[in-house]
Each structure stands twice: as C-alpha cells, then as structure tokens.
Amino acid sequence: MPHKTIGNPLSWSAQRLAGMGRGLGAAVDGIGSHEMIQPQVNQIGVSDLRAALRQGAEDFAALRSDVIFAVVLYPVIGFVLAVWAFNAGQVHLLFPLVAGFPLVGPVAAVGLYEMSRRREQGEETDWSAALSTLTGRVMGPVLSLGLLLTAIFVVWLFAAHAVWAATLGPEPYDSLLTFFRDTVTTRPGWAMIIVGCGVGFIFAAVVLCLSLVSFPMLIDRPVGVPVALATSLAVARRNPRTTAIWGLIVALSLVAGMIPLFTGLIVVLPILGHATWHLYRRAVSWPQPA
C-alpha cells in the first residue's frame, strides 16, 4: 500500500496561493467580453411581463425550499438597517434606507437567475449547485456590477440626507412620530417629500435600466460587464413603456413585501428574481453561430 505524505506548510501555502491567484485571474478576466456573437435586442410587451411573472412563480413553486434559504438574508439585512437608523438617531434616513435598499436587490437575486437557468436546462437546481457555478468567470463581472449598484445606493443615501438637511434639517430627530408629523404637516416636510421622491425616481430609473437584463446575461454568457450594461440599456431604450411598467411592478411588489417587517420579501424577491431571468430570455436573443 503506498504511503501518503503530508506536504510541508510552505508547499501547502504555495498551492493555496496559486489556486487563489488562478481564481482571481479568472474573475478579473471575466470582466471583459469573451463572447464573439453579438446579442439581439427584442421588442417586448406587457404580455411578455405577464409570462415572465408566471414562469417566475412556477420556478418559485418548484424550488421553494432552496430559494427561501438563498434569499432569507435579504429581508434580515433590510430589517437590521431600519433598526440601526431608528436607534442611531438617523430617523430621517429610515425611509431612504428602506426605499433605496432594493437598488442592490439584483445582486441578491444572482443565485435565483442561476437556478432558473439550470431548471430551464434540466440541470440540478438546489442552491448549493447553483452557487457553485458562481465562481471565476461569473463572479468577477457580477461583483463588479454589484459594486456599481452599491456605490449608487451610497450616493442615494447622501442625496437623501442632503434633501433632508435642506428642508427639515439639520437638527436630528429623536422621535419617529415627531419626524413623521413634521413631514406630513409642514411645508418643509412636503418639500422634502416632493424633492426626495423626484431624486429617488432618478436613482431607481438608472438602476432599473442598468440591471434590467445585465445580471442574468452575465450568468448566461461570457459577455463581460460593458456588453451586459450596453445591452441592458438597449433593451430599456427599445422598450421604454414596457420597462416603465416592469419598474412599477417591481416597486409595488417590493413595497408590499416590506410592509410585514420585510418578511414578505421572502416570497416577493424569489418570484421577481426568477421572473427577471425569463424576462431576459424574452428581451435578448443570441443568433446561432454561422
């Protein structure tokens, strides 16, 4: 029987570092495009939105236990942020945190896109199998795009704080009830609502156009971040009415999911995530290579 030898710490460390280096290299390399075929942007309508939502609900019904495990952290983080704002004397940031947190929602749904892709292909669909593919080529561009959305979320918080400081601020509120009363019963409060909603709409529209199909596309093909973003913008530009309706559906669904202490997101987020994959499949086509 051959004897097994134990490598010395230096050789073991070198192997681990080499593996990390290869993984990092693949992640960085994946940011650029390796897909030679250019995607085709399709015309989509309300019927496509209905079909995507129906397919998303079917995916959720089929993958429910694995999906809930994958997304349960999302409402927990949202609840923690809300509690922090309340206890840290940042009451004025409570609504911007809750309203703006969905800006990074597409990142949380990455595993859902992969599950829908695998179910569509007849592959294994549990969460561990899905997440195991999100490495190297996929992880680099996904993290890059996720950092972009996170940066937009942070800028939104600064913008919301500036709007509050210019209207109801700059003295902080210790009571949520007092802040709510001043918001809805005073002219500065209504000015904050109007300006804040206008600024928030701009941020939401930007993120919607950037993430409409970009994340599912990065999982589906080695297109790289620039191509994925350009294609997502092209889909929004060709289908402005449908994109606006989809954005309204997403916003209303997330609001409904947040009302019972964010717990509704455990159902809402998976359906929207799966539906986004199917919307991508309808909005973008890949010509067969010659």
Automatic annotation (TrEMBL):
Indicate yes or no for the key word Transmembrane helix: yes
Q: Name one Pfam family in it.
A: DUF2189
Is Transmembrane helix among the key words of this record? yes
Q: Which keywords does the record carry?
A: Membrane, Transmembrane, Transmembrane helix
Superkingdom of this protein's organism: Bacteria
Q: Where are the transmembrane segments?
A: 67-87, 93-113, 142-169, 189-213, 245-272
- Would you tell me the protein name for this molecule? DUF2189 domain-containing protein
Species source reads Paracoccus benzoatiresistens
Starting at the broadest rank, the lineage of the source organism is: Bacteria, Pseudomonadati, Pseudomonadota, Alphaproteobacteria, Rhodobacterales
